[in-house]
Specification:
It is a single chain. The protein is α/β, with parallel strands linked by helices and 251 residues long. It has helices spanning 17-28, 40-52, 67-81, 105-133, 154-174, 195-198, 201-209, 219-230, and strands at residues 8-12, 32-36, 56-59, 86-89, 136-141, 179-186, 241-244. Strands 3-2-1-4-5-6-7 form a 7-stranded parallel β-sheet, sandwiched between helices. Helix 4 runs parallel beside helix 5. The protein is globular and about 50 Å long.
């Protein structure tokens, strides 16, 4: 049920953090994985480590905010492996921390284009072959920030709520082609991306105390859900948001 042998998966933002953990988990389950982020050397380092384990991985750098990079990511994956079975959209930005009154138009545009529009670009690029094959999986890494209000991460939370709705819309549109589209919504995970939140002792302790398991997440805590959704185990799941937060949303 969890075997991904023969599956080809693109994972954006996979040179570190949650994206890397997902790429490693998919690869160890048998998938051929594309490691992708902005920096070519960082991508190659992860891909090389997986190849040393006997896995199949290739590095294809991509800046998700640039359409030409996104087009090239999909085209080069097809050139290398001939197909795309799974798309994991993990790359995201969060350049602003503060109230919405201080949000500039430039930051609003950057966040929405990187965190929402790029996913639609990628999804539309892989959809035709998935539809023709009548099989495909798209996984969007969202956040529990998209499920609740916040006084400091407003635009990021809005973009992550939009990701959940994008998954629902695409699930409805592409369901007749047997393409499954879902979100994973992590809580606070110990990554470089969220460093400002967990390195602050007050913020970290407050988050841990309000989490049922009384600890922050680790990237590996998120990766298993991606394997579950990509494999046969997830073949009747679509349009859903799976929350993985150690019980933060229930307290």
């Amino acid at each position: 049920m969890f075997d991904l042998t023969g599956n080809v998966a693109i994972v954006t933002g996979s040179s570190r953090g949650i994206g890397r953990a997902i790429a490693e988990a998919l690869s160890r389950a048998g998938a051929k994985v594309v490691i992708s982020s902005r920096k070519a050397d960082a991508c190659e380092s992860v891909a090389a480590a997986l190849r040393q384990e006997g896995c199949e991985a290739v590095a294809i750098p991509c800046h998700i905010g640039r359409r030409e990079d996104v087009d090239a990511l999909v085209a080069k994956t097809r050139e290398h492996w001939g197909r795309i079975d799974t798309l994991v959209c993990n790359a995201a930005v969060n350049p602003y921390f503060g109230p919405m009154t201080g949000l500039t138009d430039a930051v609003f545009t950057k966040v929405m284009e990187s965190n929402v529009r790029s996913i639609l670009w990628l999804a539309n690029l892989v959809q035709p072959e998935m539809a023709a094959r009548r099989d495909g999986v798209i996984i969007i890494v969202s956040s529990i920030g998209g499920l609740k209000g916040t006084d400091t991460l407003g635009i990021y939370a809005i973009s992550k709520a939009a990701d959940m709705q994008l998954a629902r819309n695409l699930a409805v549109e592409w369901g007749p082609h047997n393409i499954r589209v879902n979100c994973i919504a992590p809580g606070l995970v110990r990554t470089d991306f969220a460093r400002a939140l967990w390195e602050d002792a007050t913020l970290r302790e407050g988050s841990e105390s309000r989490t049922a398991l009384h600890r922050l997440g680790e990237p590996e805590d998120i990766a298993g859900a991606a394997v579950f959704l990509a494999a046969r185990s997830g073949r009747w799941i679509t349009g859903q948001t799976i929350v993985i937060d150690g019980g933060r949303m229930i307290t």
